[in-house]
């Protein structure tokens, strides 16, 4: 079979041709999935006229308004006033264990030019919406809403639930979810394509055997702003898997230092099976922003990192009870914590969330902290 050239296998430019319609842009496709109104000239516009689609749009708008109110807007404001003054502007973000949670990275690091996310969640696929029956389309849109509902309501996702929900959908994996999040933030999506991560850490266009699935999205956050890029790497991040498939570390290493970001990471780096990715992040991050499920406080202290703490610390969820950190509780009880105006991680209720800003030994905060919050 002859391979298409120039290998721009734009999964999202699904060639929605009709005799009188043009192809659909990735921006339009993201807007359609997110329930946002398309211009009448879009080939997808007729699909938005059904009562079922209007209900999809109504429910998705409600999800986004709640997320923006409880999380996105407060995170943007907090990052501008508390994060940037201390660690500077972030040009690259490394969000391992992040899965499809692009939206929180966009909130905290809106100035970044490269977002690198990784996780077990499959890259996924998209079907041509015009090729689906009304029943298939509306069922798939409902599953897409359900797959993002936990993220948008509780600021984290559950991998096994998302896998089950999207398996029955024609819009599968992290690809459609990221398009939805970018559409909600009014981004213009210029490119979306499948990639393959090779063993040597290079990214090849299209899908090929012998590598790991990946995707790339290039977008503009707002009119007049420069392009930014999302790379998602589908990968097992355990020590054994990284030894067998070192490409992800090679690619991350080639980018240089970035801001590390960890949230709802299942306390995996508290165990002995994820030390490789933990040590990589400690060795290649200019700063790390995380909740208590990321790197243990004891490790930061062993490596002489400075930790600035925000919010509060109670206990991990019951299923993670064995990862309780007495030293972290003592840090918060010492009265050094600063306020946190949004929920974060597994303890998603405002007032119960933990956020740590960690700086390596050679880095000093760019600004002195404000007065600690009163508790």
Features:
single chain; 375 residues; alpha/beta; ten-stranded mixed beta sheet; globular; disordered N terminus
Structural notes for this entry:
With 375 residues, the protein is α/β, with parallel strands linked by helices. The protein has a domain at 26-286. The protein has 11 helices and 12 strands. The chain has helices spanning 26-33, 51-87, 102-108, 134-154, 159-167, 174-184, 239-244, 247-254, 275-284, 297-302, 326-333, and strands at 92-96, 114-119, 125-126, 171-172, 188-197, 203-205, 212-220, 228-234, 258-262, 285-290, 306-311, 354-359. Strands 6-5-7-8-2-1-9-10-12-11 form a 10-stranded mixed sheet, sandwiched between helices. A two-stranded antiparallel sheet has the order 3-4. Strand 5 and strand 6 (203-205) form a beta hairpin. Helix 1 (26-33) packs across helix 6 (174-184) and helix 4 (134-154) packs antiparallel against helix 5. The chain starts with 25 loop residues before the first helix and ends in a 16-residue tail after the last strand. The model is unreliable at 1-21 (pLDDT under 50).
Structural class comes to alpha/beta
Assembly level? single chain
The count of strands amounts to 12
Shape: globular
The succession of helices and strands, N to C, reads: HHEHEEHHEHEEEEHHEHEHEHE
Q: What amount of the residues lies in strands?
A: 15-25%
Strand order of the largest sheet: 6-5-7-8-2-1-9-10-12-11
Detail the poorly predicted runs: 1-21
Mean pLDDT: 88
How far do the termini sit from each other? 67 Å
Helix-residue proportion: 25-40%
Rg over CA atoms? 21 Å
Per DSSP, the total helix count is: 11
User: Sheet with the most strands?
Assistant: 10 strands, mixed
């Amino acid at each position: 079979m002859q391979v298409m050239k120039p290998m721009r296998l734009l999964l999202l430019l699904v060639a929605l041709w009709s005799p009188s319609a043009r192809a659909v842009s990735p921006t339009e496709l993201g807007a359609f999935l997110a329930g946002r109104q398309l211009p009448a000239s879009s080939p997808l516009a007729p699909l938005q006229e059904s009562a079922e689609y209007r209900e999809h749009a109504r429910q998705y708008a409600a999800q986004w308004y709640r997320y923006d109110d409880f999380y996105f807007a407060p995170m943007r404001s907090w990052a501008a006033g508390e994060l940037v003054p201390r660690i500077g502007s972030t040009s690259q973000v490394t969000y391992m264990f992040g899965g499809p949670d692009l939206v929180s990275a966009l909130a905290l690091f809106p100035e970044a030019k490269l977002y690198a996310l990784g996780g077990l969640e499959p890259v996924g696929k998209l079907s041509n919406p015009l090729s689906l029956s009304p029943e298939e389309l509306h069922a798939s849109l409902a599953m897409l809403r359900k797959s993002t509902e936990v993220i948008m309501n509780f600021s984290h996702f559950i991998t096994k639930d998302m896998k089950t929900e999207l398996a029955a959908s024609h819009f599968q994996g992290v690809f459609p979810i990221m398009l939805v999040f970018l559409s909600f933030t009014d981004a213009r999506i210029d490119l979306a394509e499948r990639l393959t991560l090779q063993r040597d850490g290079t990214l090849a266009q299209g899908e090929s055997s012998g590598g790991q699935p990946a995707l790339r999205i290039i977008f503009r956050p707002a009119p007049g702003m420069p392009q930014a890029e999302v790379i998602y790497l589908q990968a097992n991040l355990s020590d054994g898997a990284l030894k067998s498939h070192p490409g992800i570390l090679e690619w991350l290493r080639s980018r240089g230092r970035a801001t590390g970001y960890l949230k709802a990471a299942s306390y995996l780096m508290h165990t002995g099976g994820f030390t490789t990715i933990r040590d990589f992040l400690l060795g290649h991050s200019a700063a790390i922003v995380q909740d208590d499920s990321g790197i243990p406080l004891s490790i930061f202290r062993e490596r002489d990192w400075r930790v600035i703490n925000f919010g509060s610390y109670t206990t991990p969820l019951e299923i993670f009870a064995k990862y309780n950190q007495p030293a972290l509780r003592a840090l918060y009880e010492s009265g050094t914590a600063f306020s946190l105006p949004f929920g974060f991680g597994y303890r998603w209720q405002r007032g119960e969330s933990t956020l740590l800003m960690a700086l390596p030994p050679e880095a000093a905060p760019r600004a002195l902290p404000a007065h600690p919050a009163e508790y």
